[in-house]
Amino acid sequence: MHQTPQITKKVLAFDIDQTLNVAKTPIPLEIAEVLVKCLNYFEICPISGQKFDQFIVQIVDPLKAAGVTDAQLAHLHLFVAQGTQYYKYANGDWQQVYNYPLKYEDVVKITTVLEESARELGYWEADKLTHGDEIIENRLSQVTFSALGQKAGTEAKYAWDPDTKKRQAIVEKCRAKLPDFLYEIGGTTSINVAAPGMNKEFGMTRLLKELHVNREDILYFGDMTQPGGNDYPVVQLGIDTITVRSHEDTLYALRGIVGIISA
User: Fold this and answer.
1) Of 160, 194, 228, which one is at a domain's C-terminal end?
2) What 3-state DSSP class applies to 84?
3) 5-30: b or e for each residue (b if 16 or more CB lie within 10 Å)?
4) How far apart are CA 43 and CA 169, in angstroms?
């Protein structure tokens, strides 16, 4: 007798850039549509170094375009800045549940050392910024260096540091000058700097607490799960993880999951 495979997970968690989308762009319609279906069966938890506004633009707005309902949004959890900030949907709006901001003096120290290090290496390219954009951004619980700013084109971003060697060099200089912080390479041109321990391990540990689930209840999707990647702390926590190369891989896996559930 044929038996349908069972899906025992309660939570699907995701990195964003290059896992759900092309970096820094809204998730494609087909991803949004399958996530809307998944919201009927799972708690959905994107967790990324992005700021809250980017979660809205890249995740929430495309879900609305795909027809997500308020009832479904109640099962969407936004773990911002690697989970050092958490927002949930209630009473028709997004409510901040917690936030662990950096001290102002630490933001100043981090910003200074990032700019100094990038300039010394010849990687400070402010002349390439579009009007109103910035290279270094205070995201409250982390400071993010984006070499070409947030508004640069996708092609330029992918081409700037495909092997991460430029960012690794910047991080090495920063660590030598300001060692008591956490440095993570993410996305295509970014370096996230936070207080020690404020990485995705912290975010996922808080997710477990906030959603009242166990590690075995979660399936995580990410593109940088190798040692040193910003998804690796999730692997180290013992959470089941699917490594993807692109949002197309994620789409394929999610369609399979939905197919099994609805069979």
Assistant:
1) 194
2) coil
3) eeeebbbbbbbbbbbbbbbbebbeee
4) 38
Report residue 10: phi and psi, to 5°. -110, -20
Q: What's the token pair of residue 198?
A: 């404020």
In this structure, what CATH number is given to the domain that contains residue 223?
3.40.50.1000
Query: Distances in Å between the alpha carbon of 111 and those of 123, 134, 159, 174, 222?
Result: 15, 12, 24, 10, 28
What the block records as the tokens of 81 is 């800045």
Phi and psi for 38 in degrees, rounded to 5?
A: -65, -30
The C-alpha atoms of residue 174 and residue 249 are separated, in whole angstroms, by 34
Model pLDDT for residues 41-88, shown as the tens digit of each residue? 999 999 998 899 999 999 999 999 999 999 999 999 999 999 999 999
CA nearest to 33, candidates 220, 255, 260 = 255
Among left, alpha and beta (phi > 0; psi -120 to 50; other), residue 176 is alpha
For residue range 114-154, list pLDDT tens digits in order. Answer: 999 999 999 999 998 988 899 999 999 999 999 999 888 88
> 93 and 205 in one domain?
yes
Cβ atoms of residues 170 and 118 within 8 Å: yes
